[in-house]
Amino acid sequence: MAMQVTRRSALGIAATGAMLLGFAGAASADDVWSDLRRDVFDNREVVEDGLVELDAPYRAEDAAVVPVTMRLPAAAGEVKTLTLIVDKNPAPVVATFHLGEAAGKGDRMLSTRVRIDMYSNVRAIAETADGKLHMATKFVKASGGCSAAASKDADEALASLGKMQIRTFDAADAKDRTPPTREAQVMIRHPNFTGMQMDQVSRQYTPMRIVSEMDVKRDGERVFKMEGGISISENPNFRFTFVPGKENVIDVTAKDTEGKVFTATSAGKGA
Fold first, then answer.
1. CA distance 169 to 188
2. Nearest 5 degrees, angle CA 187-CA 223-CA 109?
3. Lowest mean pLDDT: which of 134-138, 168-172, 234-238, 260-264?
């Protein structure tokens, strides 16, 4: 529980320092990361040793919808958490994913779409069972993603709030993975308002409302539990691997910052 509190505190504490330094032009990438490492990971050692992989575009086509993919090889063994960070976002911690038994210990993948507010390093940090932290970093050129207007007006977006679609399938390279895995995709209708978006009619800022928690299970066993922030894109979209079970039924429970709970279940299919 202590780490969860630390991370949530860092959403505001680390962001304030990083943003002020960034606007002043006085902070290097190392300075920003040093502050984040202190606030999010209590100054623990974080090594960039290739154990975790991160894919992200060098120049984003749309700063409000930037695709990122995190990969873990079987050599990583048991991984407790994956933390996704955008150094110079107003809330740098995009999300923390607590991996469960159904995530497996072989080759794993988790992808989503994020907002990026200015040119920044993006980081994926994996905490392994031995308590060590392993990192991958990509620099992404993008700006304005956190304040970009939503694709629909607030009333229209809220009308379809919480509708979910779940797909399960075999990936093209599934047989090449060690051991073989299946994939699933969860898509949630939610505006994920950041609190930084201005309504063009009223000229008022739309209040923050985001998907803050999501629990994903396969046949009742956890794949991952997510704690999310404002940097996850509108209509959150997650694609991930999981260890095949007997029925491969995916259950998803999500909760937003207004306390609204959304649930969905896939049809399921034997491995």
1. 18
2. 70
3. 168-172
Q: Which amino acid is at 208?
A: M
How is residue 42 annotated by DSSP?
Answer: T
Q: What is the DSSP letter of 55?
A: E
Nearest to 117 by CA among 94, 142, 151, 87: 142
pLDDT at 214 over 70: yes
pLDDT band at 150 (very low <50, low <70, confident <90, very high): confident
Say whether pLDDT at 259 is over 60.
yes
Q: Where are the beta strands (DSSP E) in the chain?
A: 46-47, 53-55, 66-72, 79-86, 93-99, 108-114, 120-128, 133-140, 164-169, 182-188, 211-218, 221-228, 237-242, 250-256, 261-265
- Taking only the tens place, the pLDDT of each residue in 37-69 is 999 999 999 999 999 999 999 999 999 999 999
How far apart are the C-alpha atoms of 4 and 14, rounded to whole Å? Answer: 15
234 Cβ contact list (under 8 Å, min separation 6): 64, 65, 150, 151, 157, 190, 191, 192
- For residue 232, give the DSSP letter: B
Q: How far is CA 75 from CA 50, 137, 174, in A?
A: 11, 19, 17
- Delineate the domains of the chain, giving CATH numbers in brackets: 2-265 (2.60.40.2470)
pLDDT digits (tens, 9 = 90+) for 71-98: 999 999 999 999 999 999 999 999 999 9
